[in-house]
Amino acid sequence: MTTATVKEFGDTYHHPPCTAENTITAIRTVCSQHSPMDYKDFLKAIKQFQLNGIVKLCWIGWALLDPSFFLNPKVLHHFHRMFWDHDIQWCISATGATELDFHFSLIQTLIGYRSFSKGILKLKQVTGRDHRVVQRYIIAAVNGSVPRQFLIAICMLLDLRYLAQHRRSLLSPSKGLPVPYRSSMITRRQLYVRVQELTGRYLNSSSSRA
Amino acid sequence: MQWSADVTEHAHVEEIKVPARSGNNQNYYSQIMQHLDRLDKCFCFDLATYIEQRTMDHANNGDGDSDSDSDEQHKPDAETIHLSEYSTSTRQFPDYFSISASLILGAKPSAPKPYQTFATSTTGFHLATKPLLWLSVDEAAIAYQLPNLKDTIITFANRDVCFQGQHGIENLQIWHKVHLQQLSYHDKVPLPPQTLLAIPLSTTNPYGRYDSVIISLHSQSDWPKSGLTDHSVSQLRMIFCLPRSDVFLAYIQHFHISNPTGVSPVTGMHMLRRAVRVNGQQVGEVIPLAHIHSPAHLVPNFGSGAHSCLTNLSSYELSNKFHLNKYWSKEFYYALCSA
After folding, report:
1. What percent of chain B has pLDDT over 90?
2. pLDDT tens across B213-253, in order?
3. Residue A79 sits in the same domain as residue A62
4. What ipTM does the predicted assembly reach?
5. Chain-chain contact of A143 with B302 (C-beta, under 8 angstroms)
């Protein structure tokens, strides 16, 4: 997790990680300047530090611990749902809605696997299961019709989702991880933000061109 | 208590709501009736076997403690026969590995040979007991559009020790389906079987349906540990067995991995091309079915835009370039990425 805020997504600056130490220092600084009892001034002061007003954290004093490590993404919402809400939208705008649907309709699936003979855009009652199934075929469907950098970003995100469900891979980053991740130890959150920056920049530039 | 509706309300849950939920939300009335009918039959069967069991136990025990036994016989213990036995939450599937092991040990002497269920160290196989078709080699070559079928079978028979000395391969027993079972990547427990198809073209499907598989080049394989090393991707064209032989065979057509490094640098997927001879014929081979290790999922390489003439049926037969879709399943992804 970095200290970047929503408005700063897409800029070129690589924001520093948001660690437990930073948060605790920020809380101490604010508390030394303004008393939490002094409600009006305190609220103004914490805004600059991006705090939410809680001064007694439950995890203070837990050794070697950081919220960005123990508050992990959930598979259903942070993988499948996020893929559907964001990645698919990027793919649709990059490939074109009819073309993407046509590609999906051409893919033959093995027995027992869901096929999308009418495409994916007009699906009704889409559930987490469908979100997951679309992930199986999305790379193959957009491959070739999107720019290289865009494809890298989508692949990276998808690799991340698959590897995060692997039982051992993220515990031992030197083994079992694909080449792009081996060089630098990065947390999942950082990777997310990084990829969002990449795709966000691509979409901005493409929409401004159009 | 007299005016309470609890009893009937609860009956409504048991007799209507539960059966309705266990159907597929179509034709409620008939499905509920069928459900209740079957539950009743299962209950009667259990009751009958229970009573039978008790009388047998009773006869064996003699008349010693007849008091307690005869008391219980009149009211079969309803607690031991639970309806929950009849509904399991997940689908049950057979374990081909244990079935094949027990067949080899001779658990069923009457089972037809060759055994329809067999297993290698990595993969379990199951075929229907009766072949779908009996065709001569020439008929099969026409139906499956494999002009070199006879030659490849002879080449295989000459190479394989078991087949040497066998002459006259007139008739083939042919199957359209094979069920493949794999072990899970992490804890090596059997996964639900996967059906693979090799169906020739017909009036309903003018292009046929041929699934793809991962085969090993040698009889021994350590799939999924080493990924695609020493393995190749092929298309299953025909599943058959020669008469008087105990090995199931498959006619496969090879794919070449087209990129020199094998893997697309962007997507990390293998790029495949149909292996074709100079005369335009596809390179085919006959292998034992047991050399197949995993189903594979291919996706045609659409390039910058798919050809508008393609349809769902024709897209695979009319394409020459494919991607090996590593995202097809998590197990498959781990197998390809771990190498």
Report:
1. 32
2. 999 888 778 888 877 888 889 999 999 988 778 889 999 99
3. no
4. 0.70
5. yes
Contacts of B193 in chain A (CB under 8 A): none
A47 and A139 together in one domain = no
| A194 and A110 in a common domain | yes
pLDDT at B330 over 50: yes
Interface size between A and B, measured as CB pairs under 8 A: 98
Separation in Å, CA of B313 to nearest CA in chain A: 8
Cβ–Cβ gap A144/B302 under 8 Å: yes
Confidence band, pLDDT 50/70/90 cuts, at residue B164: low
* Residue A151 and residue A82 share a domain: yes
pLDDT tens digit sequence for B28-85: 899 999 999 998 999 889 888 888 888 777 676 654 444 444 444 444 444 444 444 4
Question: Closest chain A residue to B194 measured between Cα atoms?
Answer: A111
* Residue whose C-alpha is closest to residue B100's, from B190, B194, B220, B177: B190
Number of domain units in chain A: 2
**Chain A CB contacts of B301 below 8 Å:** 143-144
- Which residues in A lie closer than 8 A to residue B271 (C-beta atoms)? none
Residue of A nearest to B177 (CA): A111
Tell me the nearest-neighbour CA distance from A189 into chain B, angstroms: 22
- Mutation for B interface: A136, A152, A161, A168, most B CBs within 10 A: A136
- State which of A24, A52, A70 marks the end of a domain: A70
- What stretches in chain A show pLDDT beneath 70? 1, 167-210
- Residue B79 has what pLDDT? 45
Q: Is B327's CB within 8 Å of A152's CB?
A: no
Q: Which residues of A touch B (CB under 8 A)?
A: 99, 102-103, 105-113, 115, 117, 135-141, 143-145, 148, 151-152, 155, 158-159, 162-163, 165-167, 176, 178
- Residue A135 in any domain: the answer is yes
Question: What is the reported pLDDT for A23?
Answer: 85
Check A138 against B337: CB less than 8 A apart.
no
Domain boundary among A70, A93, A108: A70
Whether the per-residue pLDDT at B89 is higher than 50: the answer is: no
